[in-house]
Design goal:
The chain is of the alpha/beta class and 444 residues long. 33% of the residues lie in helices and 23% in strands. The strands form 6 sheets. It has a 6-stranded parallel beta sheet with strand order 2-1-3-4-5-6, with helices on both faces. Helix 7 runs parallel beside helix 8. The longest helix is centred in the C-terminal third of the chain and has 25 residues. The protein is globular. The C terminus is likely disordered. It binds 5'-deoxyadenosine and iron/sulfur cluster (SF4).
Length: 444
């Protein structure tokens, strides 16, 4: 068993976990391959956040079942948040799955793969102490390094399966994180993104998240720092102050609201009300003028009335998020809300979702239009996939900017004037002064 194909579904935490698995596998002498057809083992890193995510993974497993019929020695493994649910499938007579490994079992992955070649293996125990803080991930090439600072979640929002699939919250020690940031910077990564389910509740010994931001801000070579996703209740003044004073911390925050109705926020066990959320937004806007805000919203939570929904919609008009991820509520096994009767029909959830999408598209476009003619600083990521004469990257406030290739290499900052917008992208013009034409000798 030598070659492994690894495919990732779901959130950024899973992307980072796949990089961690890739590091573990390569250090054990295994090779990662780009096509499942070339692999001795395939591993799907899965997501269970909504039913739709699970259905996609099950569809993909069907494709691997066909591959396995052609090559019965192929090991098919499932990692990540669906591990718990898929354990039963291991025991089915028509065996497709050989390995199920939960989010805390990755340290031992090479060994588990070897064992799975003999008999089916399930390693789904959650481990209160596992942080992988000492393990170096194999980071995907690029300008951005994802650094997991915390695993698991203790918030128990009543709709959310994460506390059950990922277990209790654990923070990685500050020294390990600073070492990871320094290492990523020395490898040429220019942007650090701290990851955690409630990233700003990170704390270790006497340090809190503000100390982590300040420590990362001091690492030479790092140009930009971001983090996702913070929980509104953990946005303390210390964190807000650090955001205001660390020049490398970028002016954008993804701050999940979920609902604009206090009644629904209570039912969701979000631990803040709208008054507190407004305070946090004001705190952010006063410390970091012009900060961009994005959010997550769930429509159709059990008990959500038209009035509750209207409160969400009205708050989104008032606050004017730059962008929003909008979801229909999906009942998840193990969660508290799973037992509650669904009061909003699929059709009505669809109607509410469409209304919010249209409203948000309008607001996002208006905000982007205000940027027309302004200058933005872009961290260049690469040449555009669609048009090789264009470069793309992110502005400081996390908007994608596409502009004519002025020769700025990936990882460098470009100054760009915004000359057009689409719903999701800014179109720009380089402000780089062209290098003076080289003198050409016309012969002697
Ligand atoms: N149904 C719909 N959306 C959900 N999310 C989490 N759980 C559910 C669920 N059961 C959304 C939340 C969260 C984002 C990552 O996914 O908005 O912030
Ligand atoms: Fe899920 Fe709530 Fe934890 Fe976020 S804070 S991962 S929504 S339980």
């Amino acid at each position: 068993m030598k070659r492994v194909f690894l495919e990732t579904y779901g959130c950024q935490m899973n992307v980072a976990d796949s990089e961690l698995m890739a590091g573990v596998l390569e250090r054990a002498g295994l090779e990662l391959v780009a096509r499942p057809e070339d692999a001795d083992a395939v591993i799907l890193n899965t997501c269970a956040i909504r039913e739709h995510a699970e259905l996609r993974v099950l569809g993909r497993l069907g494709e691997f079942a066909r591959l396995k019929r052609e090559n019965p020695a192929l090991i098919v493994g499932v990692a990540g948040c669906m591990a718990q649910h898929l354990r039963k499938k291991l025991l089915e007579s028509k065996r497709v799955l050989d390995l199920v490994v939960g989010p805390d079992g990755y340290r031992d992955l090479p060994n588990l793969l070897l064992r799975a070649a003999g008999a089916p293996v399930a390693e789904i125990r959650l481990d209160r102490d596992e942080t992988y803080g000492d393990l170096e991930p194999k980071r995907d090439a690029g300008v951005r390094a994802w650094v997991t600072v915390q695993r698991g979640c203790d918030k128990f929002c009543t709709y959310c399966v994460v506390p059950f699939t990922r277990g209790r919250e654990r923070s990685i020690p500050l020294v390990d994180l600073v070492r990871q940031v320094e290492h990523a910077a020395s490898q040429g990564f220019r942007e650090i993104v701290f990851l955690g389910q409630t990233v700003n509740s990170w704390r270790h010994d006497s340090h809190d998240f503000s100390d982590l931001l300040r420590a990362a801000n001091d690492v030479p070579g790092v140009r930009r720092i971001r983090f996702t996703s913070p929980h509104p209740s953990d946005m303390t003044d210390r964190v807000l102050d650090a955001m205001g004073s660390c020049e490398k911390v970028m002016p954008h925050v993804h701050l999940p609201l979920q609902s604009g109705s206090d009644r629904i926020l209570t039912a969701m066990n979000r631990t803040y009300d709208m008054a507190r959320f407004r305070e946090v937004v004001e705190g952010l806007r006063s410390r970091v003028p012009g900060i961009a805000l994005s959010t997550d919203i769930i429509v159709g939570f059990p008990g959500e009335t038209e009035e509750d929904f209207e409160a969400t919609s009205a708050y989104m008009r008032e606050t004017r998020f730059d962008s929003a991820f909008l979801f229909k509520y999906s009942a998840r096994p193990d969660t508290r809300a799973f037992k509650w009767p669904e009061t909003v029909s699929e059709e009505e959830k669809g109607r509410r979702l469409t209304l919010l999408i249209e409203q948000q598209m309008g607001i996002g476009a208006e905000i982007n239009d205000t940027l027309l003619g302004s200058e933005v600083e872009v961290l260049v990521e690469n040449i555009s996939h669609r048009d090789s004469s264009q470069l793309y990257g992110k502005s400081r406030d996390f908007k994608t900017v596409v502009f004519g290739n002025d020769g700025t290499p990936p990882g460098d900052l470009a100054r760009v004037r915004v000359v057009g917008t689409t719903a999701v992208t800014l179109l720009g013009e380089s402000l780089k002064t062209p290098a003076s034409s080289p003198l050409v000798s016309i012969g002697g």
